[in-house]
Design a protein that fits this description.
Strand order of the largest sheet: 3-4-2-1-15-14
CATH superfamily of the largest domain: Endonuclease/exonuclease/phosphatase
Number of strands: 15
Number of helices: 8
Largest sheet: 6 strands, mixed
CATH class of the largest domain: Alpha Beta
Distance between the termini: 47 Å
Radius of gyration: 26 Å
Order of helices and strands: EHEHEEEEEHHEEHEHEEEEEHH
């Protein structure tokens, strides 16, 4: 599966049964194989039940270690050919990472729910600094979620703001891992917003990808029972070149090593002596003695 669609959505809570099931039904209709949810308001007691409602082995919820319902993030699989492995999250229920295996490759996704802008700047900086651990992976990496900030107050806020968001730690993170804002890669300076509150709107729900992933398309869909839109990203993963059977070549230079030649002659004499009694192959004798 070299092409993939991933969606991110701040669902603003799934604790009410009717609301959760309605949102699940809506998410199943979205053309995306992987769904990243934020602000699920789950606890450890909810996780198994909610995962069963979505589908066995197709949902992964992560909550606050102290059962605080204020946060919560999740991955939902919307395709039978996908599975997740190697997942782990933070103690506050704001970060969840996992490897997603497809029939052709593996992609590493980190799903975050950042602290709100009203929190102290130091707390937000520490949060983005804590993501480094979760982004380290040998696989192509995608960072998704609700960042609760914008990088460009002119393009990503309406009305535009002259007050810059405290994003220095996020910029450092993206620079370290060579992550690019997918909307800017695809659409340049196009203005698009994902959250509406009163008379203002902003683009705080975003995707970032490493150079091994090519963003192909990005669009928003109305978010059901939330003031956030669903953002759907189409990507193309870098394919690993196929390798043929290859050709084995004997390293004949080893025969010039005096120690190797002496060992070989010794074992050959043992073989000639013991083979009639042990009835083992030359290879077995070489490996066992």
């Amino acid at each position: 599966m070299s092409t993939l669609k991933v969606a991110t959505f701040n669902c603003a809570g799934l604790g009410v049964t009717i609301r959760r099931r309605t949102i699940f039904d809506y998410l199943r209709t979205i053309d995306a194989q992987i769904l990243c949810l934020q602000e699920t308001h789950s606890t450890a007691l909810d996780e198994h039940k909610w995962a069963s409602e979505w589908g066995k082995h197709r949902a992964l919820f992560h909550s606050h270690s102290r059962n605080d319902r204020s946060n919560g993030v999740a991955f939902l699989l919307n395709h039978s050919d996908l599975r997740f492995t190697n997942w782990y999250g933070d103690e506050t229920g704001r970060i969840l990472s996992a490897d997603f295996d497809t029939p052709t490759d593996t992609i590493h996704i980190v799903n975050i729910y950042a602290p709100q802008c009203g929190r102290p700047a130091r707390e937000r900086a520490l949060f983005f600094d804590s993501i480094y651990l979760y982004l380290c992976s040998p696989h192509p990496t995608l960072l998704a979620g609700d960042f609760n900030c914008v990088e460009n107050s002119t393009l990503d806020r309406d009305p535009p703001s002259n007050r810059p968001d405290s994003t220095a730690s996020l910029r450092d993170l993206c620079e370290t891992f060579e992550l690019q804002d997918t909307l800017r890669v695809i659409h340049g300076n196009m203005r698009l917003f994902t959250r509406r509150q009163g008379d203002s709107q902003s683009r705080i729900d975003r995707f970032y990808v490493c150079p091994k992933i090519t963003p192909l398309s990005e669009r928003t869909l109305p978010g059901l029972a939330s003031d956030h839109d669903v953002v759907v990203l189409g990507i193309k993963n870098a394919t690993v070149p196929k390798r043929g059977k290859g050709r084995w070549k004997n390293n004949v230079t080893a025969y010039d090593d005096p120690a190797f030649r002496a060992r070989l002659q010794y074992k050959w004499r043992q073989w000639q002596t013991l083979q009639p009694y042990l009835y083992i192959t030359k290879t077995d004798w070489w490996l066992q003695t």
